[in-house]
Amino acid sequence: METIEKRDEFVSRFSKWNGDEKLAGYPFVENRHAPFAPVRRALPMLNLGLITSAGAFIDGAPGFDLESKGGDLSYKEIPVEVGAEDLDFAAKGYDDSAVREDLNAQIPVDRLLEYEDNRVIGRLNHVWWSLSSYIPDAAAVAEQLATKIAERLKRYEVQAALLIPASRLCHQTLGVVAREVEKHGIPTMMVSVDRTVSDKIRPPRVAYYNGEFGSVAGKPNWKQFQHRVLDEAIRWIESFDQPTSRKLVVELESAVEASRGER
């Protein structure tokens, strides 16, 4: 199965795109089918990899190029021990105020370490992967970046991957990455707040809700909200038995909490 169906058509349309930063006229990839890798290890036993596209990098190190038409195809491997105070962000297409206020709103390392402590997952892989928030060249993502990420996941013996995009465009980027990763036999789950884009790309597993770019993993400084997003998304990695997109119940649960005056 191709990571991008009708690749040549996309390449042709992309070559004619004017590079508008607001994505006017941008030729989003559209796929009809999705690869699917079954889970081979129970959640409490697996090594979970985290992939985000908020453009995070260690302060003082090279960031991401946000100016080229095709985007920056590099990635950063960041140890889980690196704290929020040591990170900076090359943000394009989303407001980075939420992730700067609370890293877990977009890069939920603390929440996932809590799941590790509580035996929800076996462990969080000791490095996570950071991608640029602005990579318009989806064909290059499929042929270069996604393959490299899949190889790194296999190198670290990651048994499942959680993907969290930050902007509208990087819903496409991580959707393409998820497709390639599953082709390499590693199950994925992508959290989405833009169902229109994620439905076009067709990542194998999608958990979506009506959230906001820049805080896709949950509202900043609201641990319970973040847990609601992640709880179902992570457990669905194991329960989905075919390519599926399913809505999270986070909004309903949060509305009930607000009506009780608990938030």
In short:
With 263 residues, the chain is of the alpha/beta class.
Explain how this protein is built.
There is one protein chain. With 263 residues, the protein is of the alpha/beta class. It has eight helices and ten strands. The protein has helices at 7-16, 97-101, 109-117, 138-155, 168-183, 195-201, 223-239, 250-259, and strands at 47-52, 56-58, 75-79, 87-89, 123-124, 127-131, 160-164, 188-192, 205-208, 244-247. Strands 1, 3, 5, 6, 7, 8, 9 and 10 form an eight-stranded mixed sheet that branches. It has a two-stranded antiparallel ribbon with strand order 2-4. Helix 4 (138-155) crosses helix 5 and helix 5 (168-183) runs parallel beside helix 6. The N and C termini lie far apart (46 Å). The relative contact order is 0.18. The mean pLDDT is 95.
Q: Major beta sheet, specifics?
A: 8 strands, mixed
User: How much helix, percentage-wise, in residues?
Assistant: 25-40%
The topology string of helices and strands comes to HEEEEHHEEHEHEHEHEH
At the first level of CATH, the class is: Alpha Beta
Helical segment count? 8
Distance between the termini: 46 Å
Rg from alpha-carbon coordinates: 17 Å
Identify low-pLDDT runs: none
Instruction: Please count the beta strands (DSSP E, at least 2 residues each).
Output: 10
Strand content: 15-25%
Under CATH, the topology can be stated as: Rossmann fold
CATH architecture: 3-Layer(aba) Sandwich
Q: What's the pLDDT, averaged over the residues? A: 95
Shape: globular
